[in-house]
Design goal:
The chain is of the alpha/beta class. The chain contains 10 helices and 8 strands. The chain folds into 2 domains: about 160 residues, P-loop containing nucleotide triphosphate hydrolases (Rossmann fold, 3-Layer(aba) Sandwich); about 80 residues, no CATH class. Bound molecules: guanosine-5'-triphosphate and magnesium ion.
Length: about 250
């Protein structure tokens, strides 16, 4: 796997003139890969940072996180924002010449959706389940711009399952320790003093304070129980992770 991963990166960097690194607005810094960014710039290719899913985060927070990234464009493939600006940026960098642009990033970050939003119609297949795009696919956007969709190869360099899950790059059904990730989500809400919002998302009032007890409380109140009314923390954890990944559970606003 490791070899085919670098093969894909090398091919993309070799074939493309511009590489778009797709970053999740909710986890801008974590969705970068410095090693791949270095490889791109060393080969004299241009990077554009595209922060997608901008509809899921507060603008001021994204701006703060993205202040060092240049050039950087904010997009929502869902709401169709930012695509005209991104196309203009590509044309500006290519100086009107024909250009190949590769789209890179973590699984499920929104690479294929971005391509469809740029094209204005569905050309790349998308899915809420990570690992959807398998091979490289070329999609012509206009006479001047050829886009390349790629699988979410970034995940092969990241061994931390919790991080991958929080970034939406790991299918909750395939997690070895979903409870650990759910506890992290609960802690995130606690750290931001937004535990009330977590309850609200599930139409319950959270009364406990300890994250493990909160997980059990949510399982009980949402009736995810095993025989003997024992909270099924594994099932509720997988559900919470899926809701986090889809944006149903979110910290902003
Ligand atoms: N809210 C929101 N959801 C988005 C946006 N872009 C993509 N998504 C959702 O994110 C999920 C993944 O989108 P894809 O475009 O398939 O992601 P990908 O990076 O191509 O994923 P892989 O091919 O699995 O690596 C889908 O459920 C999309 O609907 C966006 O701008 N806003
Ligand atoms: Mg894809």
């Amino acid at each position: 796997m490791a070899k085919s991963f670098w093969d894909i990166i090398n091919r993309l960097v070799h074939q493309a003139d511009i590489l778009i690194e797709v970053l999740d607005a909710r986890t801008v810094e974590q969705s970068r890969n410095r090693e791949i960014e270095d490889k791109i710039t060393k080969q004299g290719k241009q990077i554009i940072y595209v922060i997608t899913k901008s509809d899921l985060a507060e603008k001021s927070k994204i701006e703060e996180e993205a202040r060092h990234l240049r050039p950087c464009v904010f997009v929502s493939a869902k709401e169709k924002w930012g695509t005209t600006i991104l196309l203009k940026k590509i044309l500006e960098l290519s100086k009107g010449k024909e250009v190949t642009v590769a789209v890179l990033g973590y699984p499920n970050v929104g690479k294929s959706s971005l391509i469809n939003a740029l094209k204005g119609k569905k050309s790349a297949s998308t899915s809420p389940i990570s690992g959807h795009t398998k091979g490289l696919q070329k999609i012509r956007i206009s006479g001047k711009i050829l886009l390349m969709d790629s699988p979410g190869v970034y995940a092969y360099m990241e061994k931390d399952e919790t991080k991958l899950a929080l970034m939406g790059s790991k299918d909750p059904a395939k997690l070895k320790d979903p409870e650990l990730v759910a506890l992290k989500i609960i802690e995130e809400f606690q750290n931001k003093e937004k535990i009330h919002d977590l309850g609200e998302a599930y139409n319950i009032i959270i009364e406990k304070n300890d994250p493990e007890e909160i997980l059990e409380e949510i399982a009980l109140k949402k009736k995810r129980v095993k025989k003997g009314n024992i909270p099924d923390t594994e099932i509720i954890a997988r559900k919470m992770i899926a809701d986090w990944q889809s944006g149903k559970l979110r910290l902003q606003r």
